[in-house]
Amino acid sequence: MANLQHIRRRIKSVKNIQKITNAMDMIARSRFNAARDALLSNVPYVAKTKEIMRRVMSQMRGQEYEHPFIKTRDELIAEQQEGAGKFLFIVIASDKGLAGSFASNVFKSAHDTIEYDGTEASTSLDDDGDDENFHKKNFDALKGIKPAGKRTPKQQRQMSATGSVAKAMAHQGGADSRTNVSVAREYNDAAYIDGIELITVGRKATTHFKQRGYHIIKSYHGISERPQYKYAKEITDLVMERFASGEIIDVTLIYTQFKSAISCMPDDVTLLPIVTDDYAKASANLKEEYIYEPDVVSLLDKFMPRRIATRIYGAMLHSAASELSSRMNAMSNATDNAQELVGRLNLFYNKVRQAGITNEINEIVGGANALE
């Protein structure tokens, strides 16, 4: 028979945990309101910078303009196939746990993007809502077959770079398409990690990728729930400096996009380089023409860092709201589960106590019958 004292201790322990989870739920709920308000306040500014970028890039069409951050699609693929630089990923996660699957979902999405080997197909739209499925022949050359679906722009660019290595090695050794795939996987698992650099936001992200051998050039802790623009500006300066020097050739931002208080999903956005082909499609419907003062080139040079910093700061706000909503939901569920467990333990306690009383009555009756 179970010990009544042990059950009472268990009930007391669960009630104490329930108090803690309930308190964390209320704290997360109050912080979530502030994070959501900050995100909603930033949305119009992000939308306006996006519109300005479209209009400025539309004015650049037909002009001869060279900029280290702006490339055409063909230039981008040729540069990445040559292996001229590294890929940089900015991963935004959380500083603390107890937020359900928030951090693990970000890490899974990051690994899917960073270590993509071309074995799965997916569908994705770019920042402007346009399909960026391009240059399918690069994937056909690697896999030997036509792809079954569309892939994200980042996966396509990584596939292009991986495909060139696999294709060259297969050409030298006379291997078939199956060998190409195996070479690509080995390239991603071993040598490819040396071409990756990370900037992490949140202790969870830093710990996760450091344990797996990734090179982290910069990490930020203690700001996941309360992001500030100055940190986004600092990341922007670092990214643009390394991109301008040629150390990196591609910058991707991985974060959690906030949908609602009960829905959020990981997302990745290519920050650099800015592909003129994408903006040419996005600005095709813009018929108005503006006169810029100073000229459009000077405006673009000044505006581009602010646009990138705005996108990073917006991703931080999305991640903060998503983290707090995930923690709020996780702690609310934990409180409900604790309440349900206390109810079951009380029922079990009463059954054990009733069984003990029944046994005592049976012993008294049996003793009285023995005396007769």
Task: Tell me what you see in this structure.
Strands 4-3-2-5-6 form a five-stranded mixed beta sheet, sandwiched between helices. The relative contact order is 0.18. Helices cover 62% and strands 12% of the residues. A hairpin with a 2-residue loop joins strand 5 and strand 6 (263-272). The chain has 372 residues and is of the alpha/beta class. The chain has a single domain (15-27, 45-295, 311-335), classed as Pyruvate Kinase, Chain: A, domain 1 (3-Layer(aba) Sandwich), CATH 3.40.1380.10. Helix 4 packs across helix 5. Residues 117-153 and 157-191 have low confidence and may be disordered.
Helix-strand blueprint:
Elements (H helix, E strand, L loop, with lengths): L3 H56 L10 E2 L1 H9 L4 E7 L9 H13 L21 H8 L9 H21 L3 H13 L6 E6 L1 H9 L3 E6 L8 H17 L2 E13 L2 E10 L1 E2 H7 L13 H76 L1
Parallel strand pairs: 1-7, 2-3, 2-5, 3-4
Antiparallel strand pairs: 5-6
Helix pairs in contact: 1-10, 2-5, 4-5, 5-6, 8-10
Tags for this model:
Pyruvate Kinase, Chain: A, domain 1; 372 residues; two-stranded parallel sheet; elongated; alpha/beta
Measured as a percent range, the helix fraction is 55-70%
Radius of gyration: 28 Å
CA-CA gap between termini? 31 Å
Q: Number of DSSP strands? A: 7
Mean pLDDT: 75
Q: Helix- and strand-based class?
A: alpha/beta
Strand content is 5-15%
Low-confidence parts lasting 5 or more residues at pLDDT below 50? 117-153, 157-191
CATH topology: Pyruvate Kinase, Chain: A, domain 1
* Shape verdict: elongated
Order of helices and strands: HEHEHHHHEHEHEEEHH
Strand order of the largest sheet: 4-3-2-5-6
**Overall number of structural domains:** 1
Number of helices: 10
Summarize the biggest pleated sheet: 5 strands, mixed
CATH architecture: 3-Layer(aba) Sandwich
- The CATH superfamily turns out to be ATP synthase, F1 complex, gamma subunit
CATH class value: Alpha Beta
